[in-house]
Design brief:
The complex is a heterodimer of chains A (109) and B (602). In chain A, 44% of the residues lie in helices and 0% in strands. Chain A has 109 residues and is mainly alpha-helical.
Chain lengths: 109, 602
């Protein structure tokens, strides 16, 4: 491709035919605080795992809500469950239970 | 040969019970892992057996632990257990005096009064009649208390009672009827024959005005036998199975057998030894502070026994271990819960490839702050200040972010994953060549001690600071500050460290003694052991704990765990500090100490 000095972004449109909202529904059922998240990113800022890798819990929550769950299995296993995010969360989202439920949902669904 | 058809229900029931108990005992012993079985045999032939017998006497008969919790409740249990036991023993001795062979049928001592009416020629006959009456009265006083307890349980210090199953209610009612029936049967017989001890004789003399006493007596003997028989037949399927199970449990425990990481036959025995007394319910903060009533240890143990474990209830526990301290049977409730959690969580495994093994320069002391300490940086800063002040050759292992210690994963039952993190940390620690590992977080401290294969000394900072003070590397000045020390679960009940922090703080502040301290200490509500409870319930627990801690109006609340500091800090109306912060603030320069000493000498 000719380098014009700029490039085109990938299509960011959400394809609802492909997307899988089952995980979001499963997690929401088992841990209702999943829905009160405001994606502020405090969890990611305080995350122990994020110090060493590109684990981003905020992003994962958004992706799960949208149903984009392709790389989920690999990503979610980076969490060490230390619980700092739960203490830091301004919305009192029970993050540890959400992660455990995501892990379970990935296996089940 | 003395025989009457009414002895049949009792004899059949007793036979059934014996078969069931022997079958269970053989199963429990034969299924023990080899190591434990060896321990048990060693325990039976060494002096440990005397300790076991002593414990059985004190706990199974006298119920010492229940006496400590509530004397009236203890008395009630003692009358039923010790009283019944003595009735059997004395009854057997008495029946020997009345002749018969060595092979008296088992029902003979129980129904002795029916078969033998004349004790005038028997040596000590009157004495035994009165002694047996006294024992019966002793047991009956307990039965009356049991009736009262149904209606007014608060007198016995019982606030909450666990839900009972139908078979438990049946056996309880049977137990309530056994001794009154015995009293009536013996009294009516006494009234017919004009004898009896001080109790049955007196009651019998009243009865003698009634018509047909002989027939009534016979009916009561039947009822007495049926109630005994029913009790024995139902017993193996109810909570009363704890009576035989606890005896074996005490033998095994005294031989050094414990529930550890696997569900062994000993753990199964522990489950059967649970009397469903519900003492754990009254002690559970999630019950009395957060109004969660369906997950307490009593229900959990029953769910293990019935193989009906509900995941939500299993994980809805802070694993603070408070119930365990008060369990009259001494069941290792935390270990039981952790084992079941392991079975529940077998999903996506992690590799944690991304975690680094940090290479550090060789030092004497390695400091590991832990995740939670990074959330409460004041503790970290205080520790660094102290290290520098005491001129320690140290290194801050997780200065650039913590690799988790692995305990949070373990608390959710994911041992295999935790082991992977542990491996990484072990390597980092080994590479540093340090001789001492100091950590600020009791959660990390517990796992470092129990799961890490390290050949170095591991200390919580409260221990380490005490060591520094005792080695005169830092100096503390005494003050008049009134303070309360809060025992973190993982440090106190979890690791048994109660005295070091108190000794250290005693050197610089005035510690107040509070009601719920040491083994009875309250959980701050922040526990990582619970994944189910939301933060509103957690806050209720923290607020309640805080209120109880501050009852004596101290000026400062001191704890030794960053998580406790954070949870209690939300509700504390006074200054809350970690032990390290207190020491860092109260530390004096060597110079000022020397100067003040010189001034005194001048």
């Amino acid at each position: 491709m000719i380098d014009f000095g700029y490039n085109l972004n990938k299509d960011r449109q959400i394809d609802f035919d492909v997307n899988n909202r089952k995980i979001a529904q499963y997690v929401k059922k088992n841990e209702p605080t999943f829905s009160v998240c405001i994606s502020c990113g405090t969890c990611t800022a305080t995350c122990s795992a994020a110090q060493f890798t590109d684990f981003n819990f905020r992003k994962l929550m958004i992706l799960i809500n949208r149903g984009e769950t392709l790389k989920l299995k690999n990503e979610i296993s980076k969490c060490m469950l230390c619980g700092k995010c739960f203490l830091a969360c301004p919305r009192n989202v029970n993050t540890r239970n959400i992660i455990l439920n995501i892990k379970k949902a990935v296996d089940l669904l | 040969m003395n025989f009457n058809p009414f002895v049949l229900p009792f004899t059949v029931g007793l036979g059934f019970l014996l078969i069931m108990v022997i079958y269970r005992f053989i199963r429990w012993i034969s299924k023990l892992p080899f190591v434990d079985r060896k321990k048990l045999w060693m325990g039976l032939i060494t002096q440990k057996i005397f300790l076991a017998v002593k414990e059985i006497f004190l706990e199974s008969l006298i119920h010492r632990k229940i006496f400590r919790i509530n004397p009236l409740l203890g008395y009630m249990h003692m009358t039923l257990a010790l009283g019944w036991f003595l009735l059997i023993v004395v009854g057997n001795i008495e029946s020997r005096l009345y002749g018969g062979s060595e092979l008296n049928p088992p029902y003979y001592p129980i129904f002795l009064r029916y078969f033998v009416h004349d004790h005038s020629n028997i040596p000590y006959g009157v004495f035994f009649a009165n002694l047996m009456d006294f024992l019966l009265l002793f047991v009956l006083s307990g039965v009356i208390l049991a009736y009262i307890k149904r209606a007014f349980s608060f007198i016995f210090g019982v606030k909450r009672k666990p839900r009972r199953k139908i078979q438990d209610i049946v056996i309880m009612i049977t137990l309530w009827t056994i001794f009154p029936l015995r009293l009536f049967a013996e009294s009516f017989t006494a009234s017919v024959h004009g004898n009896g001890g001080f109790l049955t004789g007196t009651v019998g003399s009243f009865m003698s005005y009634l018509p047909h006493t002989n027939e009534i007596a016979y009916t009561f003997w039947w009822l007495y036998s049926i109630s005994l028989g029913t009790f024995f037949v139902v017993l193996p399927f109810t909570r009363y199975m704890h009576i035989p199970a606890e005896v074996l449990l005490i033998f095994m425990r005294n031989s050094g057998i414990r529930t550890e990481k696997e569900f062994t036959s000993y753990s199964d025995l522990e489950v059967y030894s649970c009397p469903k007394c519900g003492m754990c319910m009254d002690k559970c903060q999630m019950g009395f502070a957060a109004n969660i009533k369906d997950m307490q240890s009593v229900y959990f143990i029953q769910s293990v026994r019935n193989h009906k474990i509900e995941e939500k209830k299993l994980f809805n526990c802070m694993v603070c271990g408070r119930c365990q301290e008060f369990c009259p049977v001494g069941i290792d409730l935390n270990a039981q819960r952790m084992i079941q959690r392991k079975f529940m969580s077998n999903f996506v495994s992690s590799t944690f490839d991304y975690l680094p093994v940090i290479s550090l320069p060789t030092v004497d002391v390695l400091y590991f702050a832990g995740c939670m300490t990074h959330l409460t940086p004041a503790i970290k800063k205080a520790m660094l200040k102290i290290f520098e002040h005491a001129k320690v050759n140290f290194n801050f292992m997780d200065a650039d972010g913590t690799v988790c210690c692995g305990r949070p994963l373990m608390l959710t039952g994911k041992d295999i994953e935790a082991k992977k993190i542990i491996k990484k940390n072990e390597e980092t620690i080994r590479n540093s060549g340090a001789k001492l590992l100091v950590t600020s977080c009791p959660i990390c401290f517990k796992i470092f001690k129990e799961e890490y294969a390290l050949n170095i000394e591991i200390m919580h900072h409260s221990q380490y600071l005490l060591k520094l003070v005792e080695e005169s590397r830092i100096f503390l000045s005494q003050s008049e500050i009134k303070a309360v020390y809060h025992d973190p679960c993982e440090l106190g009940r979890g690791s048994g460290i109660y005295e070091e922090p108190r000794k250290l703080l005693g050197k610089t502040v005035q510690l107040q003694e509070i009601k719920n301290s040491k083994e009875a200490s309250l959980c701050c509500g922040g526990s990582l052991g619970n994944t189910q409870m939301d933060s509103f319930k957690r806050d209720m627990i923290s607020a309640d704990a805080c209120k109880q801690l501050l009852k004596g109006n101290p000026e400062m609340l001191i704890t030794a765990c960053p998580l406790c500091k954070k949870s209690l800090g939300k509700f504390s109306t006074i200054d809350i500090k970690d032990i390290a912060e207190v020491i860092a603030n109260r530390m004096e320069n060597d110079k000022t100490i020397k100067e003040s000493k010189e001034m005194v000498s001048v």
